[in-house]
């Protein structure tokens, strides 16, 4: 079995120009729960084991402030720090105790394309479980990159991820049995494409989406089933312009999984999902997927 230094995508931190409206959306509409408020941030939990999966912070614009990955051991954390520094990352926080309520040991770097990455070991967990129609944990982050090959190489060679599939425009990378935890999307500018939350099952994706629609947020793309990863999806735009996804049934893979490249990931003309039923993505969704930058860039 492959042993990965990074064992999970734990959380993301979003900057928002309207903290109250974002917190309201992610609790009442999206199905998360506020578990802590500290240091000017709101920490929101899903129903699974992670202490939190989302941090919100007031900012002058919507932006991706940080992606946090969990690391398997203190030794791996130290080794990862050495490798990220050697690869040219900027150190934002040296290894040490995290100042968040989730605690643990952590370091924070900015990788060469501008995203801020936090690596944590020994963070607090809670006794979680799957709850119908509510997100259980994060499923993946999708990052726009103007140089997909070098960012894919960074995730693979420096962070120890594996490339599971490569379509014409996207690279799918895993750090555990999930087909992907990070997706890189070819784009003109670096930034956040979207954040995906794992629902317990397909029915929860449908019913959760119904709740979001009831609150006045139209579907941006979906319902459909992706090709690489085989997961079902529905995309929405949050009130501050961030694209978020409900997903479920993410393909579980191991070292026997056969990588497929762009030549094999092809659709019949006009089709954008595996079932062939997803209507075309809305223009608003397409625009939002390329409008969120990294903080400090
Ligand atoms: Fe996605």
Oligomer: single chain
Indicate the radius of gyration in whole angstroms.
18 Å
CATH superfamily descriptor of the largest domain = 2,3-Dihydroxybiphenyl 1,2-Dioxygenase, domain 1
Tally of discrete structural domains = 2
Q: Report helical residue fraction.
A: 10-25%
CATH architecture of the largest domain, please? Roll
- N-to-C terminal Cα separation, in Å? 38 Å
Extended strand count: 17
Write the element-wise H/E pattern from the N-terminal end onward. EHEEEEHEEEEHEEEEHEEEHE
Q: Which consecutive residue ranges, at least 5 long each, have pLDDT under 50? A: none
Overall pLDDT metric: 97
For this structure, the CATH topology of the largest domain is: 2,3-Dihydroxybiphenyl 1,2-Dioxygenase, domain 1
CATH classification, class level of the largest domain: Alpha Beta
Overall morphology: globular
Class per helix and strand makeup: alpha/beta
* Proportion in β-strands: 35-45%
Tally of separate helices? 5
Query: What kind of sheet is the major sheet?
Result: 9 strands, mixed
| Cofactors and ligands | fe (ii) ion
């Amino acid at each position: 079995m492959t042993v990965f230094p990074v064992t999970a995508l734990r959380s993301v931190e979003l900057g928002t120009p309207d903290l109250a409206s974002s917190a309201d959306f992610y609790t009442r509409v999206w199905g998360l729960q506020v578990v802590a408020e500290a240091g000017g941030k709101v920490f929101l939990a899903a129903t699974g084991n992670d202490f939190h999966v989302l941090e919100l912070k007031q900012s002058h614009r919507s932006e991706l402030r940080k992606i946090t990955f969990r690391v398997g051991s203190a030794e791996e954390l130290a080794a990862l720090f050495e490798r990220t520094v050697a690869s040219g990352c900027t150190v934002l926080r040296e290894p040490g105790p995290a100042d968040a309520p989730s605690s643990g040991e952590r370091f924070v770097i900015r990788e060469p394309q501008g995203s801020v990455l936090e690596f944590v070991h020994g963070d607090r967990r809670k006794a979680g479980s799957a709850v119908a129609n509510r997100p259980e944990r994060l499923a993946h982050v999708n990052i726009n990159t103007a140089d997909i090959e070098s960012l894919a190489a960074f995730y693979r060679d420096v962070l120890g991820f594996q490339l599971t599939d490569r379509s014409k425009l996207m690279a799918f990378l895993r750090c555990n049995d999930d087909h992907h935890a990070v997706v890189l999307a070819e784009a003109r500018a670096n930034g956040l494409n979207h954040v995906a939350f794992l629902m317990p099952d397909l029915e929860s994706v449908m019913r959760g989406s119904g709740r979001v629609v009831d609150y006045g947020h139209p579907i941006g793309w979906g319902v459909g089933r992706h090709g690489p990863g085989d997961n079902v999806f529905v995309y929405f735009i949050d009130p501050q312009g961030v694209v978020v996804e409900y997903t479920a049934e993410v393909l579980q893979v191991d070292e026997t999984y056969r990588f497929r490249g762009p030549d094999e990931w092809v659709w019949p003309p006009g089709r954008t999902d595996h079932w062939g039923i997803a209507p075309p993505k809305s223009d608003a969704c397409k625009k939002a997927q390329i409008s969120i930058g990294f903080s400090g860039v």
